[in-house]
Write a structure and sequence with these properties.
By secondary structure, this protein is α/β, with parallel strands linked by helices. It has helices spanning about 25-30, 55-70, 75-85, 95-115, 130-145, 160-185, 205-215, 245-250, 270-290, 315-325, 345-350, 360-365, 375-380, 410-425, and strands at about 5-10, 35-40, 45, 125, 155-160, 255-260, 295-300, 330-335, 355, 390, 400-405.
Length: about 425
């Protein structure tokens, strides 16, 4: 049976060798069956961060989440419009929508460049150079007195610097055209779309261009791209491909994935972890709703009180995972020293409990509300033997005192080798 396992490792104890585990770790024991991720360039680890240039939809969505969690001191209508957009690629058969997406994506890459996000080596931007666009810009430049000089790129594939220059030109001419149309009592469209009566620079593109130039359409300065400079730590120019899809692929192949959340920006703990957990849940639920059987997945969350909010909405990721995950073949395991800080809906849906020593009366009282742990309240406070636990499982009507065997890397490696030997042997 394949069982994909993912560990949200807040302190790096599962991903890295440490003295508590005889100088070993889960990653060391399971070797090639284990994949480690970290939000930093580290030998032996895959990069947990996104490549914002290659994954614009994921990058913008992450920035929006981070912005809401801890907004920088910038505001404005254009910034609000920018944060309200999506860079999810539309169906290519819808040419108008797809072309607008391509233009927004190109400006997005220019915004990243201006904000100091390192681009992948040799990165090229696809800029808009349609006949309709170029003709309008040239005609307007030629009809002005004196004529306005304009430089049209010779290729749709240009460097980031040249792309920024071209979008600056488009914005400048669009504003000049609008002013000219206003003075001549014409419909104020600026550069016109190939669809008659529609502006080529719609509200979303206008906001993006204003963000790029750090100036609104009334030529008043504002923060613009500076609003996103604080999130550069979540971007990796070296990453190739969507990290969320990559993690899902490992889990569906039955591997162990360890997310080392001890390194990198603090917010990575809540934002990226929640995003990956949500993707796992959505993928399994989608498979189930299609009438197929989802892959077996176990989600482990270490130091869960740091990731799972007590006041989360019931529709948020972690409460839904606890309540609905089982039907989608997802087991949810969380470890905490503070059960009182865990969402009550998650506690109510917990079916198997492993309780070791607790010395806090508040936490003991929170625990005593469930099953017959109240009978063990005094002993839970006094018993400090390492590995001694009271266990209540779904299959047992009672809480049972149990001594848990410690993690022994050498023994586990030997057992694993035997299992592989048996599984590789030819069938008789």
């Amino acid at each position: 049976m394949k069982v994909g396992q993912i560990i949200f490792d807040l302190n790096g104890e599962y991903a890295n060798a440490n003295h508590q585990d005889d100088g070993s770790s889960i990653a060391d024991v399971f070797g090639e069956d284990c994949c480690r991720y970290r939000a930093a360039d580290t030998a032996g680890f895959e990069d947990l961060r996104l490549n914002f240039y290659q994954e614009p939809a994921q990058g913008l969505a992450l920035i929006v989440d981070l912005f809401r969690k801890d907004p920088p001191p910038y505001s404005g209508q254009d910034l609000d419009t920018f944060l309200g957009t999506s860079l999810e690629e539309p169906d290519a058969t819808s040419r108008g929508d797809h072309n607008r997406w391509k233009v927004l994506t190109a400006v997005w890459q220019c915004l990243l460049h201006k904000a100091g996000y390192k681009a992948p080596a040799g990165h090229i931007v696809n800029i808009p150079l349609s006949d309709n666009l170029v003709k309008q810009l040239r005609n307007f430049a030629d009809t002005q007195n004196p004529k306005i000089a304009i430089t049209i790129p010779t290729s749709e594939k240009v460097s980031l610097e040249d792309a920024c220059q071209w979008f600056e030109t488009i914005r400048k001419f669009n504003l000049l055209l609008k002013a000219s149309q206003k003075s001549n009592s014409q419909p104020i469209l600026g550069i016109q779309s190939s669809t008659k009566g529609n502006p080529w620079v719609d509200a979303n593109l206008e906001a993006y261009l204003n963000m790029l130039m750090r100036e609104n359409s009334r030529e008043q300065p504002f923060g613009g791209w500076r609003a996103i400079t604080g999130y550069r730590g979540y971007h990796s120019a070296k990453r190739s491909g969507d990290v969320v899809k990559e993690v899902l692929g490992h889990l569906h192949a039955g591997k162990i994935v360890i997310l080392d959340l001890s390194v990198g920006p603090d917010t990575v703990r809540t934002v990226l972890a929640k995003k990956i957990a949500q993707a796992i849940f959505n993928a399994s639920l989608k498979t189930m709703n299609e009438g197929k059987v989802p892959e077996n997945i176990v989600v482990y969350v270490e130091e869960a009180h740091n990731l799972i909010g007590k006041k989360d909405e019931l529709t948020d990721t972690w409460p839904r995972l606890a309540k609905e995950g089982a039907k989608a073949k997802i087991a949810f395991v969380y470890a905490t020293q503070e059960p009182s800080s865990i969402h009550p809906n998650i506690l109510s849906n917990t079916e198997n409990w492993f309780v070791t020593h607790l010395n806090n009366d508040d936490e003991l009282r929170a625990l005593s509300k469930y099953y017959d742990f109240a009978d063990f309240q005094a002993s839970l406070k006094s018993a400090q033997d390492v590995g001694f636990a009271r266990i209540k499982t779904l299959s047992s009507p009672f809480v049972l005192p149990t001594q848990i065997k410690r993690f022994t890397p050498d023994e586990l490696k030997a057992q694993l080798a035997q299992l592989r030997e048996v599984s590789d042997a030819p069938m008789k």
